[in-house]
Amino acid sequence: MNPPAIPREPRRSSHSGIRTMSTLLLRCGLGLGLGVALALDAQAADPRAADHGAHAAPTVSAAASAAAEMSSGEVRRIDQERRRITLRHGEIRSLDMPPMTMVFVVKDLAWLDRFKVGDRVLFRAEKIDGVFTVTEMAPAP
Questions:
Q1: Rounded distance, CA 5 to CA 65, Å?
Q2: Does the residue 56 lie in any domain?
Q3: Do both 32 and 86 map to the same domain?
Q4: Same domain, 33 and 68
Q5: Do 24 and 82 fall within a single domain?
Q6: Which residue range(s) make up the domain with 121?
Q7: Does any domain span residue 57?
Q8: 95 and 28, same domain (yes or no)
Q9: Residue-level pLDDT, tens digit, the chain, 141 residues
Q10: Can you point out the beta strands (E) in 80-140?
Q11: b/e per residue 84-119 (b: at least 16 CB within 10 A)
């Protein structure tokens, strides 16, 4: 008679532990990668989230900024009746306009009395209801 068989533990290969560890690392890596991807996606949806420069105070003073936006010109003609002024001006960046001489409507009629032909001025112009209008004007320094 043969002795009863002794149950044995299943035989493990020396690589089975490595395979289990590889699977664990792969799953952790995928989870970490997914978390980073989701964080980057959320950041892309709200660009202010990573814009640390937005916290800094502006370095240009308001007066310097306003002066930078103004264009230079020379008064060529004043038409009190029609509320217009003709200016020979440099580039007007806000209107994407090259230097030229042209007629503008003025917002403030007092400017037509204050300035005379030949005066150099700084001004800001806008296109209001299809009409080029001087909205700010001051003597040039």
A1: 94
A2: no
A3: no
A4: no
A5: no
A6: 63-139
A7: no
A8: no
A9: 666 666 666 665 555 555 555 554 456 554 555 454 545 555 555 555 555 555 455 554 444 445 558 999 999 999 999 999 999 999 999 999 999 999 999 999 999 999 999 999 999 999 999 999 999 999 999
A10: 84-89, 100-106, 120-128, 131-139
A11: bbbbebeebeeeebeeeeeebbbbeeebbeebeeee
Q: How many CB atoms lie within 10 A of CB 42?
A: 10
Number of domains in the chain: 2
Same domain, 91 and 120: yes
In the block, which residue shows the tokens 């806000």?
94
CA 63 to chain centre: 21
8 Å CB contact between 75 and 116: yes
Q: Which pairing describes strands 71-79 and 100-106: parallel, antiparallel, or unpaired?
A: unpaired
Q: Which two tokens stand for residue 12?
A: 């493990």
The reply to whether 10 falls in a domain is no
In sequence order, what are the residues at sequence separation of 6 or more whose Cβ sits closer than 8 angstroms to the Cβ of residue 115? 75, 78, 85, 121, 137, 139
